[in-house]
Design goal:
By secondary structure, the chain is an alpha+beta fold. It has 3 helices and 4 strands.
Length: 120
């Protein structure tokens, strides 16, 4: 999944460049908020986004951001949501969490806990 890492790095680089264009120095920290990868069915393509894919993408994105945190002065990372808004709705916009709406964990939950322990 090198395309995921490349996209995360490109987003950080472009944000930092846009901040410079707006007059902000590199000392201004970047706070990544509401980041995630939903599960469920994509409303337009009808493709299913699996729990396994959510784990894979989150791990790749988090590791990439972590490895670039000093270069781009990233001071914070926050998931979009800890739990799904409504796990039973097919629409992926209700399934951003790493927990289902009843608080039972998806596979990405264990991965996220592992990454926190490893990277902190």
């Amino acid at each position: 999944m090198p395309e995921i890492s490349a996209a995360a790095e490109r987003a950080l680089r472009e944000l930092r460049n846009n901040l410079k264009t707006a007059g902000f120095t590199d000392n201004v920290p970047i706070r990544i908020t509401e980041n995630g990868w939903p599960t469920g069915k994509h409303p337009f393509t009808k493709l299913e986004r699996s729990y396994q894919r959510q784990s894979q993408v989150l791990e790749k994105v988090i590791r990439t951001i972590y490895s670039l945190r000093i270069q781009y002065h990233v001071s914070q990372y926050t998931l979009f949501g800890l739990r799904d808004a409504d796990t039973h709705k097919d629409d992926l916009f209700h399934q951003y969490g790493i927990l289902r709406d009843d608080y039972s964990p998806k596979p990405a939950y264990a991965l996220y806990k592992k990454l926190i322990q490893e990277l902190m």
